[in-house]
Amino acid sequence: MRIVFIGTGGIARSHADGLVKRSDVTFAGAYDAAPERAQSFVRQYGGTAYASLEEMLDAVKPDAAWVCIPPFAHGEPELALAERRIPFLVEKPIANSMDVARRILDSVQRTGTLAAAAYMTRYRRSVNRVREVLAADPALLVQGGWIGGTPGVPWWRVKAQSGGQIVEQTTHTFDLVRYLVGEPRTVYAYGARGFVTDLPGYDVEDASAVAIQFESGAVGSLVSCCGSTAGGGVHLTLAARKHFISFTGWEHTAVIRRSSLEEEQIRGEPNIFELEDAAFIEAVRTGNAELVRSPYADALKTLAFCLAANRSLETGQPVEVATLGG
C-alpha cells in the first residue's frame, strides 16, 4: 500500500513511527507547508518530498493518505483527495468551522471516498468494554476534563486558528462521551481568561467548564485548562445505576466498579496510533468501511458539539447542538 502524508509535524510522526514497522506499507510521498519539515520526514521514513499537494497526489497516485494539519488548514487537502477518490485518515479536529467540514463531507459522500477521523480513543479495549457495560446500564452522570499547559506550536494559542482548547484538544473527551453516552442536546459554557499573560499572541481561554444535557436525559460536565504548568492530566468518570466507571491518563485505563463493589480494570494501550492505523489500512484493503470507528460524518457531529460549547462561551447563553448541524 503506497501512502502519503499531508502535514509532517509531531502528530504525523506519531502515526509514521508505527506505520514504518509494517511490511505492507510503503512511504511514497510527503507534503508540508514548511518544505524543510517534509524533507526531514522523508529522510526518516522514506518517499519523496513534494513542493505542492496536487503534484504529489498526481505523481504518486497513493492508495491512502494521512492528513495531519492544523485546524485552520483543512479544506483543500481533503477536497483534493476526495476528488481523486483517495481514502484518507484525517487528524482531529477535522476543521475549525462547520462550513469547511460540511463541504468536505459533501465531497466525500458524493465521490464515495473512505474518510476516517483520528479519534483514536474509540479503538481502545477499555473504551469498548465500557461501551458494552453502558449499553445495558446507561450513564446518568458524566464528569471529565483535560488539564495541563499550553502546547508549544504558535497557532495553538490563536483561537481563530486552533479553535481553542475545546476544539483542538479536549475534543478527544467530547468525542468519547458521545461514543459512550450518546448525542448531546444542549451545552452551557463558562470560560476563564487573564491568568496566562506570558505567551505572545495568546487569545484562547485559560480554562473552561461546559455543562451538558444529553438526548438520553443524562447530564454532565467537561472542563478544560491549558494554563496549568503543573499539569493535571486527562480523566473521565461515568455513573450509572449499577456501575461507576473511571478513565485515567492519556492511555485511558478504565476501572469499572459494580454495585457489589466488584472491580474490573482494563489497562489502556500505549500503541493506540498503531491500532487505529491498522484498522484504517484494513478498511482500505478490504473496502469494509465498518472497520472505521470514527467515520468523517460522525466526526462532524463531534465538531458541532465542540463548536456549540465555543458559541456558548462567546454568548454566555445555552446552545442547542443541533443548531450547528450536529
Task: Write a short abstract of this structure.
The chain is α/β, with parallel strands linked by helices and 326 residues long. It has two domains: 138 residues, Rossmann fold, CATH 3.40.50; 172 residues, Dihydrodipicolinate Reductase, domain 2, CATH 3.30.360.10. The chain contains eleven helices and 15 strands.
> Measured on Cα atoms, how large is the radius of gyration?
20 Å
Low-confidence sequence ranges: none
How is the main sheet built?
9 strands, mixed
How many helical elements? 11
Give the CATH class of the largest domain.
Answer: Alpha Beta
Question: What's the CATH H-level superfamily name of the largest domain?
Answer: Dihydrodipicolinate Reductase, domain 2
Mean pLDDT: 97
Counted beta strands = 15
- Strand neighbour order, sheet with most strands: 14-13-12-11-7-10-9-8-15
What fraction of residues sit in β-strands? 25-35%
Number of domains: 2
Percent of residues in helices comes to 25-40%
Choose one word for the global shape.
globular
The CATH architecture assignment of the largest domain turns out to be 2-Layer Sandwich
Structural class: alpha/beta
Tell me the CATH topology of the largest domain. Answer: Dihydrodipicolinate Reductase, domain 2
Distance between the termini: 34 Å
Could you spell the SSE succession in H and E letters?
Answer: EHEHEHEHEHEHEHHHEEEEEEEHHE
